[in-house]
Amino acid sequence: MLERELTISNRLGLHARATAKLVQTLSGFRCNATLAAKGREVNAKSIMGVMLLAAGQGTPVTVRIDGEDEAAAMQEVVSLFERRFDEDA
């Protein structure tokens, strides 16, 4: 299992478009993924679950990924966070 703490840095946080991009990124992998923030842990492959976190800009989130392709999945998630979900030009 891999675990990494990341901070949401895009201006709008994990709103619908950013959440959809995260879920779409993870959907191609066979591993399990969770996001934890503000005392809650949700399935990171579930749009509704991630939206329930209501994680705004500056919120620290813990990403946990477990499964056969966990390293590649984590790399993609970290890249997505670093690119600010491709929103801030």
From TrEMBL:
The protein, known as: HPr family phosphocarrier protein
Record-linked CDD domains: PTS-HPr_like
This protein's record includes keyword Protein biosynthesis: no
SUPFAM superfamilies for the chain: HPr-like
Top-rank taxon: Bacteria
PANTHER family: PHOSPHOCARRIER PROTEIN HPR, PHOSPHOCARRIER PROTEIN NPR
Annotated GO CC locations: cytoplasm
Subcellular location(s) per record: Cytoplasm
